[in-house]
């Protein structure tokens, strides 16, 4: 069914394109949000990718590559937005946690750990973060990740390996304080 819709969209059918977009948007937004770590910029990236998809849908040679093509457009939009926003200053404020978690199943501890992982993930370079999101969040094999990013498979593996090593190292050390990061325009 998706192949038929892609063919119809390639022929200029707005309704077929709208059906495809409705099905793909949640996945694209989820990936963009993890890559950019900002819901508003993630929406902008997905919108930019979908506008490009509509403009260039006739150039899509293989209808079976629809999903990979949309991911590629979204990832590239994310990278453009991330590079455009590099000029923001980061100000770190120290916040000491109120208490230590009492049990391994402590829900606040889980939330704190998840938040810490998110902060550490956002500290990774965009190329490593992108590979990790595509591979772990979207559950794509590294060959597909490399294809989406337009890099050799070895490069995707290297970025994944470096990103995981950095995360493991950061998560292995116990933080003496939690850091709240605020962005301030330059």
Tell the overall outline.
elongated
| CATH top-level class of the largest domain | Mainly Alpha
Question: What series of H and E elements makes up the topology?
Answer: HHHHEHHHHE
The value of Rg in angstroms is: 19 Å
Could you outline the blueprint of secondary structure elements for this entry?
Elements: H1 2-10, H2 14-36, H3 39-56, H4 66-84, E1 89-95, H5 107-123, H6 126-137, H7 142-149, H8 153-172, E2 178-184
Helix pairs in contact: 1-2, 2-3, 2-4, 2-6, 3-4, 4-7, 5-8, 6-8, 7-8
Can you give me a brief rundown of this structure?
68% of the residues lie in helices and 8% in strands.
Plain-language structure description:
With 186 residues, the protein is mainly alpha-helical. It has two domains: 2-84, RNA polymerase sigma factor, region 2, helix turn helix motif (Rna Polymerase Sigma Factor, Chain: A), CATH 1.10.1740.10; 89-184, Arc Repressor Mutant, subunit A. It has helices spanning 2-10, 14-36, 39-56, 66-84, 107-123, 126-137, 142-149, 153-172; strands at residues 89-95, 178-184. Helix 2 packs across helix 4 (66-84) and helix 4 crosses helix 7 (142-149). It is elongated. 24% of the residues are buried.
